[in-house]
Amino acid sequence: MDVFYQDSANTVKLLSVAVSIFGPQKTVQEVFNQKRGHCSSQLSYGGDEILEAEEFLQIFKNTFVPWCLQPNSSSTNARLDLLLTLLDDRHFSEQWSFIVNYLINQSSSGCPAGLINSDQAAMFAMLLEKARDESMKRKVRDGSSYRPGANAEDWHHECLESYAIAASHSLPPYSTSHVQFMWYVNTDFSEASCRKCLIL
Questions:
Q1: What is the pTM for the complete model shown?
Q2: Residue 65 and residue 77 in one domain
Q3: SS3 breakdown of the chain: % helix, strand, coil, rounded to 5?
């Protein structure tokens, strides 16, 4: 898949548009089936929805998450948009949990316990900011019916809060990235919860 060997924001944006139109699973499966030389996802999975979902999640976790979360890329902004676009309603919780755990592991890599790598903290802050925007978009599109990701609670992850608290107790000085990261974690996607910021 050529997009993984480029650093073009426009190429990534084009893929995001395709996901928005055709859905995460269909887009990912068609693109990777073409890479393998298959004509159609139906031929590959034989109508097995469980196998289809399992492979989608495997590609998402093993390929898209590491690629979209690479720091210091000229297309980082577009990649994070793509990553959130790939959150499928049927697998939202599993996908978001995997993203959070992946970033936490990356953020602490090579740093003393309780400290966050500055580049990864910036990535985390940007992702959480975009997740807030995505939550609002889902709420507007959703109307009266429930859709995963439309509520602030859907984005809550216990590891985020405990990790932010641990980071806040580490020795200063903090970079702007660290402050932004801890602010987004503790605002919990809603203005009412800004009171939690006082903890820090």
A1: 0.80
A2: yes
A3: 75, 0, 25
